[in-house]
Amino acid sequence: MAKLTKKAKALAGTVDREKLYGVDEAIALARANATAKFDETIEVALNLGVDPRHADQMVRGVVTLPKGTGKTVRVGVFAKGAKADEAREAGADVVGAEDLLEIVQGGKIEFDRCIATPDMMGLVGRLGKVLGPKGLMPNPKLGTVTMNVAEAVKAAKGGQVEYRVEKAGIIHSGIGKASFPAEDLRANFDALVDAVVKAKPSGAKGKYLRKVAVSSSMGPGVKVDVAEVSAI
User: Fold this and answer.
1) Which strands sit side by side in the sheet containing 94-96, from one edge to the other?
2) By Cβ atoms counted within 10 A, which residue in 114, 147, 159, 203 is the most buried?
3) What residue ranges are annotated as transmembrane (predicted)?
């Protein structure tokens, strides 16, 4: 294990590793420990009782954080004609069809979310090896393959985040910046947890929400009392 710096040791000392904190207290501690020179992201880790290797236990979806993410999200849209114009008017950063395919194939990806109209999926499918590993492949279940491109662009720009369970059964997601008021972070925390709980797959057996922790980008994790979270 790497040695902790003096600063990391000091921050770790502010958190009782054995204690389960209330949600508001955990958020307050995470904010207090965000002492980097940049505005750190407040992150949530949800440990779920699922095995994502089984298709019926995959947890994935999107949630709109009511107070936004604090991040500038670049949106790319594969569309033609009127739908391309609609995407541009809604604020999409990159819009195109075959021309955008060539740019992406050349290794230039200038977007954080990717949206496509259904008729473009034959084209976009050729980018599976490029977009797939980055989690950028448009998906009808996530609302990113749609004819309503304007609404999808506005949602992506306005605080919508995608969550997906990792191999170890953990979902990591940012819920805003350390500079956000505590009540805004709490509202976003509640929205994320609510969405993940509602997305409980049919194959999940036993306790679903097992562990919860909150941290800042550079700060120590703060364990949250799951009983309080489950009661939300």
Assistant:
1) 94-96, 75-78, 113-116
2) 114
3) none
What whole-number distance in Å separates Cα of residue 213 and Cα of residue 48?
A: 12
pTM above threshold 0.85: no
Q: pLDDT by residue (tens digit) across 122-181?
A: 999 999 999 999 889 999 988 999 999 999 999 999 889 889 999 899 999 999 999 999
> Beta-carbon neighbour count of residue 46 at 10 Å?
25
Q: Which two tokens stand for residue 102?
A: 């060539």
16/135 Cα distance (integer angstroms): 35
* pLDDT tens readout for residues 38-70: 999 999 999 999 998 898 999 999 999 999 999
Task: For residue 18, give both structure tokens.
Answer: 């054995």
Task: Tell me how far CA of residue 221 lies from CA of 19, 35, 43, 174, in angstroms.
Answer: 11, 14, 9, 13
Dig out the tokens for 74 from the structure: 């670049």
Element (H, E) at 103: helix 98-105
Using DSSP's 3-state secondary structure scheme, residue 214 falls into strand
